[in-house]
Specification:
Layout (H helix, E strand, L loop, with lengths): L2 H12 L13 E6 L2 E7 L8 H7 L13 E6 L11 H8 L3 E6 L9 H8 L3 E3 L4 H7 L1 H9 L3 E9 L16 H13 L2 E5 H7 L14 E5 L18 E5 L4 E3 L2 E5 L5 H11 L4 E4 L3 H9 L5 E7 L19 E5 L2 E7 L5
Parallel strand pairs: 3-4, 4-5, 6-12, 6-13, 7-8, 7-12, 8-9, 9-11
Antiparallel strand pairs: 1-2, 1-3, 10-11, 13-15, 14-15
Length: 345
Amino acid sequence: MNQEYYIKRCIELAGKALGKTYPNPLVGSVIVHNDRIIGEGFHQKAGEPHAEINAINSIKDEDKHLIPESTIYVSLEPCAHFGKTPPCALKIVELGFKKVVIGAMDSHDKVNGKGKKIITDAGIEVVSSILENECRELNKRFFTYHEKKRPFIILKWAQSADGFMDKDFKPTQISNSLSKQLVHQLRSEEHAILVGKNTALHDNPSLTVREIAGRNPIRILIDFNLDIPENFNIYNNDAETIIFNSTKNYEDKNLKFIKIEKENSLNQILEKLYELQIQSVIIEGGRFTLQQFVDQNLWDEALIFKTPNLNLENGTKAPTFDFNPEKTEKLRDCEVMLFRNQGLD
C-alpha cells in the first residue's frame, strides 16, 4: 500500500466527527506495520484524546511491541502544545515510532511546524504534504479561521425557478422534505448559523436541527434595535444565541448580546466571531443580509436550493449572484447548486 492510501483512510476517519470537534480540527490517524493496519482512530470531540492517541490506544496488546517498527499516519501535523490534552508529538517520540507521515501541516500558531520539528529532532523520519489539498479541504473551516482570522462563511438560500424566495412576501415552502433534512444536516456540521432581523420577524425560525440527530449550531441574530420579541423561537433555550445590536452588551445563560456599530457591521461581526473562536457560519438570512455578504465578497461557499418547476411570480427576489456552480445535485424535484468563491485571496 502507498502513503496516499493510508492518508485517505485518515481523512475518512476524521470526517466522522464533522461538526463535533470545534474549535479543534478534524484529524484521523492510522498506524501501519508491514502494510497491516494495527491501529486507527480519530479526534471525536474537543477536550477528548486526539486522533494519534486514539489510534495508539486501539492497538491490541499483542501488537504493541510492533510500535517501534511501525509508521503512524496522521491527516494533520501532530500538536506540539499542552492544551486540554498533552502534545501528541511528544507521545510519538516517547513510543519511538519508526516513521511519521503527515497529510497537511498545521497553520495554527501554537503548532505550525513545531510538532514536526519535535519528531525530527528525536531522529524519527517524517514525510509531510501527502494529499495536502485533500487534507486542507477536510479542515477548510479550521484553516480559514486561523489563516484569514475569520470564520468560514457559507451562504444558503432557496429560490423558485423565476428567482423568488417567497410568494407575495409571505413565508413559502420552496424546497422539499429531503432538502430540508439536508439543511438540518448542514446546520449540525457548522459551528454557527446567522440570520438578520427581517428573517427572524417573518419566519420566526428556531435555527436548530429538528429533522436529524445532531448538535444545534450557535445561533446568531443581527438586530440593531432589538426589535425581535423575546418570546420568539430564536430566544428559546435550544441553543446558545448571540445577538448583535447597537444597544447593549449583556450575557445571561445561553444569551449573549454584543454591541456593534451599524457602520461596517459585517467586518465587526466577523471580528467578534473570530474572538469567540467560531470557525464557520451559515448565512441563512433574507435577501438583504445575504446580499451584503455577496457584495462585500465575504463568502467561501454558497448553496442554492432551486425548484425548477416552481414559479412564484411575485415576492422577495433572491440575491443577485452571478457565479457558476461547481456542481449541481438533484434531490427529487429540487436542485442543489454548490458554489465556491474562487476570487478570494
